[in-house]
Amino acid sequence: MELVRYYFYDFWEEIGAPRVSNLPLIHGGPWKVCAIVGLYLYFVNVLGPQFMKNRPAYDLRIYMLLYNSFLVGFNGVGFFIGLWVTDYGWKAIDCTRYDPNPTDIKESLYMYFGWLYFISKLADFIDTAFFILRKKESHVTFLHVFHHSVMPLIGYFGLKIHPGPYCAFMPLLNVFVHAVMYFYYALSAAGPSMKKHLWWKKQITQIQMVQFSLTLIHSINGLQSKCQWPKWLAVCEGLHAVIFIVMFSAFYKQAYLSKPSTKSLKSQ
User: Fold this and answer.
1) What angle do CA 262, 266, 267 make, to 5 degrees?
2) Residue 182: inside a domain, yes or no?
3) What is the pLDDT of residues 166-184, one digit of tens each?
4) What amino acid positions are annotated as catalytic residues?
5) Which residues cross the membrane (predicted)?
6) Residue 25 lies in a domain
7) Boundaries of domain holding 186
8) Does any domain span residue 166?
9) Is the pLDDT at 222 greater than 70, yes or no?
């Protein structure tokens, strides 16, 4: 029993940074986050489709507009504050130098904005719920679900193990991309009159691919430099970047470079 407790709880507290230990969902091991992701997958694959099976699609336009507008502001503000408190996420600093209860405003803001970023990855599940409740099943692709499932775990491990500025590089890129992406979604939810302003959907995917390419460069820099950033985190970040470069490239080729068949044109 003690061995089980050690690997389920004590082990994670030993390798984790003390300053984030008491933050909600960060305390202890990743099991609470895994349970939330499991519930998300259950909703996507079982509960949601069953609930909507004999129901008409819901009109959620006003809720989508509010949700997307809020996330534009959250990610946009988070990006600029993140630039200030993390020195652009390129300076590798050992998390053990931080006080568990930091008094410096930059260190405090970094810790709490890092936690808010992690929570925002759970809030992104609402995207999928909107698709299912509106019966837009074609939007619930493997890439969409895989991306949403992985990001909360990445947020947990980054914040838990090394809540230092170097870990902030990928979140900084991510909140910038999400600010742009949710602005597009907000315009789309505003109604048909906005359709003429939605010509730049392809460019969003291009920005996402640049994001993952820069993340790969960041991980390589962490591996070859004499920094205090854990090498296994660098490997995980690089693997994450490669996986999404491959998946988004395949999506980009299918969505924007392949000639659509007559059947797909009709469905569109």
Assistant:
1) 120
2) yes
3) 788 888 999 999 999 999 9
4) 147
5) 29-48, 60-84, 109-133, 140-159, 171-191, 232-252
6) no
7) 58-254
8) yes
9) yes
Tokens (6 digits) for 205: 């995917």
Q: How confident is the model at residue 7, as a pLDDT?
A: 74
Note the pLDDT tens digit of each residue in 111-158: 888 899 999 999 999 999 999 999 998 899 999 999 999 999 999 998
pLDDT at 66 (0 to 100) = 95
Name the token pair of 8. Answer: 């389920």
Residues 6+ apart with CB under 8 A from 144: 127, 128, 131
What single-letter amino acid sits at 261? S
Domain count across the chain:
1
Residue 22: inside a domain: no
Regarding pTM above 0.90, the answer is no
Q: What's the residue count for the chain?
A: 268
Q: Is the pLDDT of residue 59 over 90?
A: yes
